[in-house]
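In this supplementary section we document a worked example of the pipeline. Step one takes a protein sequence of length 275 as its only input; no multiple sequence alignment statistics are reported here. Step two produces a three-dimensional model, which step three serialises into structure tokens for compact storage. The input and output of this example are shown verbatim.
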Amino acid sequence: MAQPELQVTIHGHVPSDFWEELEAELRDCYRRLPSDLRVVQVHLLDTVERLREFLARERAELGIATASGEEFLATHDAWRGVPRITICRERIESVPPLVGLGAIRHEVAHTILHGSLEYFVFRLSRGLVARGRERGLDDLALQQLLYHVAIAVKDCEAARLLVEHGYAECQVALALYQMEIGDEDRLAWLLARSDPRARLIYLAAQLKPLLFAQPLRRLTAFSRPLEERARAMLAFLPAEEREGLTTLAERVASSLGDDTRQNIEMALWSVLTML
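The serialised model returned by step three reads:
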């Protein structure tokens, strides 16, 4: 199967050897993973500041209201009708090499699985909207909840694809990195816990690293460190919330089929029912 054409745009000063190594990795990934993609756009930026400026322009031009993505090591999207990967050299070089490699391969998997606009624009069913209303969610809050659930489900699907094709170690490194928490996470919980809407959205946001790790936890060699890191990640939450998130992540991951949109709807129903 032919590999996709890589259409590369470099923003700022990126050494040629960095791009050459990245290009080789991207091509190797597309050679190993099944894909019918014809074109993939790659935006490579030198600094985090330039990344923020680039993403802000994109949001303004495209009218995107969701989170910017600048907090991620790398991102994918299809807002302009073709799959696109955005990578910041400064961000990638700030983490251990295996983590950075895992992030790059993870975005390749996303372009294969979620490389068209249909995976970024969702219309909620009347039943989901009604259920959200029962939980006190207005349109904005429901969209925020949908965003967190959607990226969590898509991350799980991407991890599943990579594991199936021999990419495990780098994905475990990335999963462990994503489950690290800081003081800002604890503060965010303290601010959200007394507001039912904010609490629900906060808990749903924790599904991204938890669902990402689920396909990896099935690998015996990595199950214990991932389980321990997941417990540590949730340790500051009350027992009910910890248990609810753990059960929810396991149930959603075990129920995922091959239809992303159906998977997201199922996961959103589960969040609205179980959390």
